[in-house]
Recover the amino acids of this structure.
């Protein structure tokens, strides 16, 4: 399993700034499925403590709802400590099932109007993995993952080759 952690090139305006994704070798009949991990919930007092004018860029015509969505994108991300705990957990628990773990910092300022992973709809191709609901989950914070099966090739059987 490959682990790719990109460090920020500049000082970040807050600690909660890291995205994490994984690539699962085989998942629901597809190969090399990318799953974007996120925090599905957070403490409202933490969200209220940030100076959002420095974190999110607003363009003319954007609504308060657009900015709220971008706030959620930031709040769904991980601190460096959470990221490191999550990466360690994934390495220990899923090393044989994962091809890669990737992490990079968000780019600041975050554009207004981004769609948070928690708001993306689920259907026959798009879904969630709720890691915190899997038995023997050991992290102190919840983690979910969003995937799109239509973006990945099906696993071929020997007869189809």
């Amino acid at each position: 399993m490959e682990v790719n952690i990109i460090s920020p090139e500049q000082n970040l305006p807050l600690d909660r700034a890291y995205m994490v994704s994984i690539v699962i070798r085989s998942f629901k009949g597809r190969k090399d499925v990318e799953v974007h991990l996120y925090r599905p919930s957070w403490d409202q007092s933490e969200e209220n403590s940030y100076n959002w004018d420095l974190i999110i860029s607003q363009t003319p015509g954007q609504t308060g709802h657009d900015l709220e969505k971008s706030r959620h994108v930031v709040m769904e991300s991980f601190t460096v400590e959470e990221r490191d705990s999550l990466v360690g957990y994934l390495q220990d628990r899923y090393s044989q099932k994962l091809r890669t773990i990737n992490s990079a910092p968000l780019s600041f300022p975050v554009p207004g109007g981004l769609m948070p992973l928690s708001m993306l709809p689920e259907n026959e191709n798009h879904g969630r993995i709720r890691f915190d609901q899997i038995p023997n989950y050991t992290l102190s914070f919840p983690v979910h993952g969003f995937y799109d099966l239509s973006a990945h090739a099906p696993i071929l059987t020997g007869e189809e080759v």
Notes: The chain has a mean pLDDT of 93. The CA atoms of residues 55 and 74 lie 9 Å apart.
